[in-house]
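User: Show me an example of a complex going from sequences to structure tokens.

Assistant: Sure. Here are the input components:
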Amino acid sequence: MAFTIEDIADGVVVRVCDARLDAAQAIHFKDRLRDVVGRNGPLILLDLGKVDFMDSSGLGAILAIRRALPRTHRMELAALTPNVDRVFRLTRMDTVFTIHETAPAGTPRPVRNGGTQPLDGLA
Amino acid sequence: MGRSPVPPAGPRRGGPVGAAGHSGTPPLFHRVMDASLTEVRQALIDLRARFDGRVDSDALGRLELVLAEILNNIALHGAGTGESAAAARPGSVTVHLSVTSHGGGLACAVIDDGAPLPAECLVTADRMPAPEIAAMNAGGFGWYIIRDLTQSLFYFRENTLNVLCFHIPGPSAGRGGQVRAGVG
């Protein structure tokens, strides 16, 4: 499970680089995203534009992170592909997120950023 | 448990059945696999490769989602009750998956030799909790998705086997997949 992180005005864009956000990846995804959330914010904008398949385990991972957000933080979603959009609509989870058509471009993080960012830019 | 339901045919029957050079033949997919999350993932990737461009892409997306929910459920719970049981006996459950395009949709059968499917999976309330509550639960969506996207879903237990069959409608008839029995 790979992410790239870009800084935007009020937080970060987290771009998910894998094509499948499924049960085989869900725990790994959740652990890594939790780590990102802990060190960034307040806005966590999750760019799912490269994800062309997600199942209920992937959705559950996103929801678990949302549930555990610090009070100061918020999570929004962007660039849902048809198969991902379907899962959000079927479960009505499209109603609990702000969902953007596209993700804004941010400022890419350097791979080394204070020496405390093992995740950033990790492939 | 130890008995295998069908002779253990080479688990990787990945070879195209009715594929190469038979563009007029309805595509088929058959796979025998261990019930593990990684085997499920690979089966779904191969399934997509087989059907892509040959069936309606929206129907294929719905099929892939439904199968992911069913097969992951077997991988996680098929070895018995409780996660410890599944962890203790990895790969102890074998799944046979068959898919064929049929009547504008896709007909599927999933057979496994794991523990019986709890009855409540198929008969739970049709309504999800309110979205915000469901979001806080962060789970429980799988069977809801399965029931929502399938038609003619039926299950039976035959000796040591679970047999689950269903239909994914094509692009025109019955889209939306809501199980509104008897309506219209």
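The lines above are the inputs; the final block is the predicted structure for all two components together. Confidence is low (pLDDT under 50) at residues 1-21, 174-184 of chain B.
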